Please model this.
Amino acid sequence: MNLDERYAFVAEWYDPNASLLRRYDLLYYPVDGSVEMHDVKNHRIFLKRTVYDSVRLQDLFIGNKVTIFSRQLHLIDYGDQYTARQLCNRKEKTLALLKPDAIPHAGEIIDMINKAGFKISKLKMMLLSRKEATDFYVDHLSKPFYNELIQFITISPVIAMEILGDDAINEWKKLIGPANPGMARTDFPTSIRARFGTDSIRNTVHGPDSFASAAKELELFFPSSGSGGPVNTAKFTNCTCCIIKPHAINDGLLGKILIAIRDAGFEISAMQMYNMDRVNVEEFYEVYKGVVAEFNEMVTEMYSGPCVALEIQQNDATKTFREFCGPADPEIARHLRPGTLRALFGKSKIQNAVHCTDLPEDGLLELRRKEGRRNWCLITWKFCIGLQLLILFLRAEARSVQYFFKILEN
Model:
C-alpha cells in the first residue's frame, strides 16, 4: 500500500444550532484509517489527522453518510481527480427483492448478503398493488405463468433492498443462483435459491440483470422523489417497536438479530431502514431527556448511521418483547439474561444492539450483583425512577411505531 495515498471528498454537515449547512474537505488515509477535515468557508483545519476506526474505505462513496466525532457528514462529491478516478466505479447498486416465500428466511438471506460484502443502503418491507406488480413484471406479460406470478408477488409482503458493492449486479446474480431452484441445488448449492427456493416462481429472490433494469426497478421501489412507491406493511395494532441500532447494522448483525427475533416466536409485521438526523432522534428519545444520564450518547449513536425500525407483533407484545431485549447494559444481560438480544449482540450500554421500551426494573437487576446495606438507597431511587419511566414509556409505545412507519414515511 502506498503510504502517501489519500482520498478526498467534499462533505456537508447540518449545524442544528445555526440552521446552516457547513461544508468540509474530508481526507481519508487508508494506510492507518485516519481522517482529516478542513473548513471550506474559513480556510482552516477543522480536524487534524486522527485515526478513526469507525470509518472504512468501503463506507466512502458519493451519497453515503458517515459520522465522525458526532457529526453526520453527507458525502456530496469527490475532492480531487485522483479520488474520482480511483473510486468512481468502485460501487455499483442494484435491487435485492425478497419475495413472499422468502420472508420467513429474511434473516438468513440478509446475513448472506452481508457476508458476501454488500452494503444495504435502503430496506423496506412493503405490499405490492396489482398495478405495481404488473409494472414490475411487464417483461413477462406474454409468459404462460404471468398471472400466477402476479398473484404470488401480491399475496403477502416482500422486502426490497438497495444493495451496494463492487460489480453488484453480477455478484448479486451469482449469489442468488439460477431461476430454477432445482438447477441451483445441482450447480450452485450454496446460492440463495438453492437453499430456500421451491420452483421457478417461488424462488425466494429477484435480481436485475443489467444496469438499466436495476435503475428502473430501484426507481419503482425507492422513488428518487423520496415519496410514493409501494406502501409499508405496518398494522399499528397489538404491536411494539424495535429499533436495530446503527452499530449493529454496521457490524453486519441485522440478519442475525432478525433470526433471533423470529426464533423467539415474534412476528415482524413491518420493517424499514432510516437515516435519522439529530433533531429526529431527540424528538424520538424525548421521554429519556433529563431522566437517563446517557441521553446525549444515546442520541449520538442513533444518528451515527442507518437504523432499522421493526414493528413486532405477539400476544402482549410490549411486555414480552421488552423482556426478550433484556437489560440495557449488555454486561448485566449476559450475567442475568444470557439469551436476550442485548446479551447476544450488545457491546455497551449505549451500543446495546436494539432500542425498545426498557424495563423499569433494569436498575434493580443491575443491583442484584451487589450486596450490602449501603445499596438500599440506590435501589429505592432507581425503583422510583423506574416507575416514572414506566408511565412515560407506556405513553410513548404506540407513538414509537407510528413515528417510524407513519411520520417518517411522509
